[in-house]
TrEMBL record:
GO terms for cellular component: cytosol; Golgi membrane; mitochondrion; nucleus. One of its GO terms (molecular function) is prostaglandin-E synthase activity. Pfam families: GST_C_2. PROSITE patterns: GST_CTER. The gene is PTGES2. The lineage of its organism: Eukaryota, Metazoa, Chordata, Craniata, Vertebrata. This is Prostaglandin E synthase 2. One of its GO terms (biological process) is cyclooxygenase pathway. It comes from the Eukaryota. SUPFAM superfamilies: GST C-terminal domain-like. It comes from Serinus canaria (Island canary).
Length: 242
C-alpha cells in the first residue's frame, strides 16, 4: 500500500531493502535482479558498490512527465573470468539481455489489458488482490469494487498507449508463443539446463496472472505450458528461481 512505501521517494514496487552494513535501498525489479546476481557470482564488491553501477537517470517525457530509468539494468558487473563462467559465449549474454528487455518493454504491458479486460475479469483480479493484501473489511470491499472499475477503464487507456489489438488475448498469445519459439526445442530453458535471467523475467510476468481467466486461456491457446511447468519444477526443487 502507498502508506507502506512512504519512506521512499521512489514510488513504485518492488523495492528491496538490504541490510548491507548500512541500510541500502534498491529500486526497479531488473536492477534488483542484476545487482543480486552480480553479487552472488562475484562477491568481490559490496552490494553498495554494485548498486552504484546502476545509477538512476531522470528524463522528461514529451508530456512533461518526469521518469526515472536505471542505466545498465540488464548488465551484470562481472570480470572476465566470471563472465566466462556465466556466459560461455557472447551470444548467450546478448540473448539474455534482449529478452529481459522484451519482458519489461512489451510482455509486462499485456498484463493489465488482459486481466482487467471485462468488468467480470477486473472484479476477479481485484478479489485476488484484496484477498492477498492487507485490507480491512470495509476498505477491502471498497478497494475491490472501486479498484476494479477504475482499472477496467485504465486498462483501456493502456491498451491504446501500447497499441494492442482489439482482442488483447491475441497479443498475449502471440508474445508468449514468440518466447517459446525463442527458447526453441533443443533446450529446456533459454539458459540451457537451468533458467537464466530472461527465463526469470518472463516467468515473473506470467506468474502474476495465475488463477485468472487470462492465465487459463493462455495455457490452453499457446505452447507455453511445458516451459512454464519446468520453471515451476526448478523453483520447487531449489526454493528459488536462480
Ligand atoms: N520498471 C519497474 C516498474 C515498477 C512498477 O511500475 N510497479 C507498479 C506496480 S506493479 C507500481 O508500483 N506502480 C505505481 C506507480 O507507478 O505509481 C520495475 O520493473 O520494477
Amino acid at each position: 500500500m502507498r502508506k507502506e512505501i512512504k519512506f521512499s521517494s521512489y514510488r513504485k514496487v518492488p523495492i528491496l531493502l538490504a541490510n548491507a552494513g548500512s541500510p541500502l535501498q534498491l529500486n526497479d525489479s531488473s536492477v534488483i535482479i542484476s545487482a543480486i546476481k552480480t553479487y552472488l557470482v562475484s562477491r568481490r564488491n559490496s552490494l553498495e558498490e554494485i548498486v552504484s553501477f546502476y545509477p538512476p537517470v531522470k528524463t522528461v517525457t514529451e508530456q512533461g512527465k518526469e521518469v526515472v530509468e536505471y542505466e545498465n539494468k540488464y548488465w551484470l558487473m562481472l570480470d572476465e573470468k566470471e563472465t566466462k563462467k556465466v556466459y560461455p559465449v557472447k551470444e548467450v549474454r546478448v540473448e539474455e539481455m534482449k529478452w529481459r528487455k522484451w519482458a519489461d518493454d512489451w510482455l509486462v504491458h499485456l498484463i493489465s489489458p488482459n486481466v482487467y479486460r471485462t468488468p467480470k475479469e477486473a472484479l476477479a483480479s481485484f478479489d485476488y488482490i484484496v484477498r492477498e493484501g492487507k485490507f480491512g473489511t470495509l476498505e477491502g470491499l471498497f478497494a475491490k469494487y472501486v479498484g476494479a472499475l477504475a482499472m477496467f477503464f485504465v486498462s483501456k487507456r493502456l491498451k491504446k498507449r501500447h497499441q494492442l489489438r482489439d482482442d488483447v488475448r491475441e497479443d498475449l498469445y502471440e508474445a508468449v508463443n514468440e518466447w517459446v519459439k525463442a527458447v526453441g526445442k533443443n533446450r529446456l530453458f533459454m539458459g540451457g539446463n537451468q533458467p537464466n535471467l530472461a527465463d526469470l523475467a518472463v516467468y515473473g510476468v506470467l506468474r502474476v496472472m495465475e488463477g485468472l481467466e487470462a492465465f487459463d486461456d493462455m495455457m490452453v491457446h499457446t505452447k507455453i505450458q511445458p516451459w512454464y511447468q519446468r520453471m515451476e519444477e526448478v523453483i520447487e526443487k531449489t526454493g528459488v528461481a536462480i
